[in-house]
Structure formats: C-alpha cells, structure tokens
Design brief:
- The structure is a homodimer of 396-residue chains.
- Chain A has 396 residues and is an alpha/beta fold.
- Chain A has 3 domains: 71 residues, no CATH class; 189 residues, Rossmann fold, CATH 3.40.50; 86 residues, Arc Repressor Mutant, subunit A.
- Chain A has 16 helices and 11 strands.
- In chain A, strand 8, helix 11 and strand 9 form a beta-alpha-beta unit.
- The longest helix of chain A is centred in the middle third of the chain and has 16 residues.
- The N and C termini of chain A lie far apart (47 Å).
C-alpha cells in the first residue's frame, strides 16, 4: 500500500478529469514511480487535483519511506499517441462510464485503457476463468457455460489466457465478452491470441490498467486478476490445479465480496484440485448456467431473469453529465448493482454522428430485444432520430 | 408400514431369542406374510414373544387391512438347514452382537443372516457405494478411497454390485469389508461376484435380511440399501448418475441421520450427475480419506484417529451375556457409537475350540496392533490361553 493518507475517499464520488490537460495529469500521476491505485486516490484527494499532486510529489515519500518520482511528461504524450493510433480510450475512476462494480473494490485502477464497447462492463458481468493447461473437457465446459450465460444476457469476463479463458472468450464474442490484459492493450499475451484480441476489440471489450507498450510480466497477473473479479458479480473457476494462480483470483474475488463458484471434477484429475478445494471451502458448485444464476439469487425463471435488465421505468429524466468525450468512454453511467439503466446506456452510445443499429445492439450489453425496445422508446420520445439509411443519432 | 401398533419399542431394549425354539419362532414370524420389520417389533412387543404373536396372527390384520399369514414351520426348518450347510448364523435385533448403528434406524431388520466376522459390523463402518456402470476412473477412485479408509481402521460397507461396490470390496478384503446382499446369502448377485462373496465370507462379513434361497428382485434393492447405510456412520457416493438408485441410498442415509458424502466429477460426465447434485444439496465433498474423517469430526491426527478405537480401559469387568451360541452371532456387543470395547470383541471371537491369531486379527475389525494388544491383555488376565501350536482358546 502506497497511500500516504487514509481513509481513502469513496471511489464513487471521485471527480474524474474534465479536460485534456486533466487527463494528461491523471495519466502522468498514475504512471509516476511508487504511485499505486490507492496512492493515486489519496494524493488527488489530499492535493485537490492530479496536477497539484504532481507538483507536490518530489517532496513526499510513501508510508514505507520510498520516494515518489513524477513520470516524464513526454512518456505520457507517447502513451496518448499510442492510444490514438490504437483507437483506445480511457475510462477514469469517478466518470459515469467507469465500471461501477470495479469502482467498489479496495484498489480500483484510477485509469483503464479500453478498446471496444465500454457499455459491456456495465451489464451483468460474470468471470469464467481457469487453467491455461486445461483439458479438452475443461475447455468444453468453459465454452458451454460461457455460451449459456451469454445467451441469458450476461457478459463474460476473462483474462485472454490460453485454455479456459480463451474458450470462454471465443464463444461469447457474439453475446458479449471482456478480456482484461495484464500488459498494455498493444501487448497481447499470449501472442497466439492476437487475432482473438482483435475480434474482442471489435465485438467486445479489451481492458487494461497497464501503460500502453508495457510487456506483461508475472507481477502483472495478480493485479490483472483483481480487475477480472472486480468487474464481475461472480467468478466461476472452471478447471484449476490446487495452489494455482486461479485460486488467487478466487481469493481476491472473495475479498471483493464477489460470489465465488467452481466447476467440480474428479479428485483423480489434478486439474480439478483447485476447484474441488474451493468447493470444500464453500464455493457454489456449478454444473450449468442455472447453478450460476441460482447462486446469484435468480429464481431461475425467464421472467425473473429478464427483470434483471432494468426497464424503461428506471431511466432518469436527464441524461448523465458526460465525461470528456475525446478521451474517456461514452457508454453511460454504471450503477452499483452492475446494471446501468438501459435507456441511459443506449443513449450514451449515441452521438451526433450516425451509428448503426447493429453496433448499438452489440455494444449495449443487454439482450437485443431489450435494446431494440430501448431504441424505439428513445425514438418515440424524440431523443434519438433515425437518419436516411438507418443510422441513429442524438436529436439536437 | 405394517405396524398394527405404535409407538415402536426401542430396538436397543428389544429382547432377543434365548433358545433354539425362540429363534425358530422369530424366523417364522419374520417370514410370515405381511409382517415387515416394523410389524415384527410391534407384534412381539404387543404379545410378549414371537410365539405368542404367531398364535395371534391369523386373527389380525395390518393397518391397511391386509391379512397376516404365519409362515409354514417346514419352510423355517428348511431355511435353518440351509444356514447350517452354508455356515451362516443369525444376528437378532436386541442381541449384543447385533450391529448397534443398524438397530437405531426406524426399521431395523429383526433378523440378519451373517457369514464371516460379525465383529466387523461393530467397528467404524463407512459405506462406499455407486454406479454399477462406473467408469474406470470411478472404480479407481472407489478403490483408493476404500483402501485409505481401511488402512485407518474403518470397515467398508457396500452392496456387492458391479462397478463401484465391487472395487470397494476387493481392496478392503484385508482391512475389513461387509457386503450386504439383496437376496439370500446363498443367492449371490451378480453371479460374477460369487468368488468375491466367498472371499468376503472368509475374510469379511456377508449380511442379508432376505430368507436363504430367495432370489434378489428389484424390490429387494432399496431395502438392502437401507441396511448398507444403516450399518454405516457415513455413506460415500463415488460415481452415480442423476436420478439413479444410489441417490435413494443417500436419501435413506439422510433419513437415518447418517453423514452423506460424495466424490465430485465433471458436469460433462453423466456418471457424476448424482454426486454433483448431492454436493449442491450439502453433502460433504470427498477427495480422499482425510475429507471423510474430517466430515465425521476427526481432527485428522493419528493420535485422535487411534483414540477412536477404545482402549483396554473401556472393557467391562464381566463378559456380556451371550446370545444363543448355536445360531446367533458371537462377536460381542455393539455399542451405539459404533465401537464395541475391543477386549469384549476379541473375547467374543474366541471359544473353547482353538482359533488362530491370524483369524482373530482379521475378524476383530480393528487395527492389528490394537488386536494384538488386546489378546496379550486377555492372556495376562488369564481369560485367554494359548495352546501348543499357537491356537487361542477361552480359559475355563
């Protein structure tokens, strides 16, 4: 913990950057030596802004006596240039489009680079994770589960690793998938998943808190895993050896107050050891999507399942205050229960440049029928217009 | 339920037959039409003895109006002759050698035919049961588990069926195994297990409540299963499809207040469906013997495990009143916690005909070192003598 101050401010009430200069300062502070997620929040709170914190930084030390060192402004410029080239945008802690569940963990990343549809992270997210050296049964199980959950409107979150993660992402490309990378968004690991990552950036969402250009190393993975579980209402462990890294994800998820679930396996199969251990420790046993939803408190009927997606009655009268459109996401605010009002989400996906209905359907993170209904409602109330050719735009 | 009377008497205080004539009457009453285990107890309690109940029987009807019909005395003679030819003996409800845990179920068999070492049923018994069409992994798991549990002094109880049961019996022949048959002791099913049954009669214990000569039919199996669980402190389900017969055993075990445990398996393997369902319903997850003992409340240390076997200090001053030696078992009294004082058990295994130390070690149902210590103690106190050649006999 790098925080020189405590207690930490409520991340939900954190004020995000409102200008390009502020974004630059946030990024520079976040990239400064010995400034971690907790330290970032503490510094900004103490000094009132990232710029002020950067000025004060050379005179400060961490609780353990280490010196802070502001990042070079040029390095931040370089990172912003890489982002522009890659089409990546920043999600900033406190901004309405920042994933609400993630903001609730003890150490949310102050900044996340995103490629794809940030709205996905505001839907009902479920992490499906497990062993890299998964068996074919394990991979099949991950695919079945992710497909079932996707079909019920849940977004699948995983870490783009070989094995279970890859299987879970592949089948949920159409329904909604989020990959959290350990290194920079432009440093996909493993390299064999470069094409999958590209598909996810087009149809799903790639996220990373690491600086662009950063190669992933072993120290990045536990930090990445806290984001996987932090985004998710539940973490389902599909196949994992005893004492494997996946158990760390499970522990982090428990510390974050998230549901931990596991798929059982034969005790004679070492790749089931971690799952069986979790089950003995009280994790919910998962055979199929019904079990996941039951553990999440669903009654298991379609009526109740659909009710999870908020209907039009939940939409506020005024659209939320947007973050800086040029850099930050624009997928509408996330609510703490992981379900942003759908009308707001759909509206936030639109601008004065025409967007195709297909894109909105893909990015809204909700069942298509619900999204179509929301679009219809926005058209009826005059907030959205359909241009010749079908493109959707915000009304003036 | 055939009981014309209620409430039923405490089976632990039930008076067993004390003569050959009484044994004959018990067997005849038990074999009478429409007299089930509960009816047997109610009738003997109401009329004071099996003989009196048999006299009254023609004038009585069951609660549902069915007529009782006393069995033909000749059929009982035939059954007793078959028993003598087979070397089977009767364990009678209320007798000290009747398995104490079994006596506590709601409908204990009034009579059990036994071949082998009845003392085994008084040790710590654990049922290992599962699918007949088990996978090789399932059979391997059953064998590993039964072997581990046997090595820790537990007796393995199962149903001699193909698959899981067979695997569990085979590996526990040396440490202690009990097979409960659905049909008569002389009608081993499946036939392919005839040799295994013979080995069990020599090294373990074969039990059945069915009349000798009775072919097993489907209606016998659930009744047999209640005995498998009734004898046992815990029932471990190793591999079982969803909605299979093994789940009935699990339900019976729960109704009997016994621990129900299950070995997990992949949800993609239908043969794990029953186990995984039980696990979701709260059964303890079993990976190895440690898990079984932990669920039974063992702290997992050798010291505590050995303490389960009562030491010499538990032995009563006087040997228990024996049942009729010619027909009934003679393995000493069972205590309700499933652990008969070892000295008593060992003494009950001896007679005035020399027995080999090996046989006693095999039949006592306790770790060999403990049995040797008990034999030594009995020799020191003069209750047992060692004949030239090593045979052990009761002292005059």
């Amino acid at each position: 913990m790098n925080s020189p101050l405590s207690p930490l401010p409520d991340p939900m009430s954190f004020t995000p950057p409102r200008s390009g200069a502020e974004v630059h300062a946030w990024l520079r502070l976040a990239r400064s030596r010995n400034v971690g997620p907790r330290g970032f929040r503490a510094l900004v709170t103490r000094f009132g802004s990232a710029e002020a914190a950067l000025e004060a930084l050379p005179g400060l030390t961490t609780e353990s006596g280490k010196r802070f060192e502001p990042a070079a402004p040029g390095a931040v410029d370089t990172e912003l240039e890489r982002a522009r080239a890659l089409g990546a945008r920043l999600l900033c802690l406190g901004a309405p489009e920042y994933p609400a569940l993630l903001a609730q963990i003890p150490d949310p990343p102050p900044l996340l680079w995103a490629r794809g549809a940030p709205g996905l992270a505001c839907g009902s997210c479920i992490a499906v994770v497990g062993a890299r050296n998964a068996s074919s049964t394990g991979r099949r199980m991950a695919a079945l589960l992710a497909q079932e959950l996707g079909g019920r409107g849940h977004t699948i979150v995983s870490g783009l690793a070989r094995g279970i993660d890859t299987a879970a992402h592949r089948v949920s490309l159409a329904s909604g998938t989020i990959a959290v990378l350990a290194g920079g968004l432009d440093r996909v690991y493993p390299a064999e998943n470069a094409d999958l990552a590209e598909e996810i950036s087009l149809n799903g969402l790639l996220l990373s808190e690491a600086p662009l250009g950063e190669q992933p190393t072993s120290r990045h993975f536990p930090r990445r895993n806290r984001i996987v579980s932090g985004l998710s209402r539940a973490v389902v462990l599909v196949e994992a050896a005893d004492r494997s890294g996946s158990l760390i994800t499970a522990r982090l998820a428990l510390e974050q107050g998230r549901e931990v679930m596991a798929v059982p396996g034969s005790p004679l199969d070492p790749r089931a050891g971690g799952c069986n251990r979790l089950l003995r420790q009280g994790a919910a046993l998962v055979r199929h999507a019904d079990d996941v939803e039951e553990a999440l408190g669903y009654a298991g009927t379609t009526a109740l399942r659909v009710a999870h997606w908020p209907d039009a009655g939940d939409a506020p009268d005024a659209p939320p205050e947007p973050g800086p459109r040029d850099m930050a996401g624009d997928a509408g605010p996330c609510t703490p229960d992981g379900a942003t009002p759908l009308l707001t989400r759909v509206e936030a996906l639109l601008s004065h440049t025409p967007a195709s209905e297909d894109d909105i359907l893909r990015q809204a993170g909700a069942p298509p029928a619900q999204v179509l209904q929301a679009i219809g409602e926005l058209e009826l109330t005059g907030r959205v217009e359909r241009r010749p050719g079908g493109g959707l735009v915000l009304a003036d």
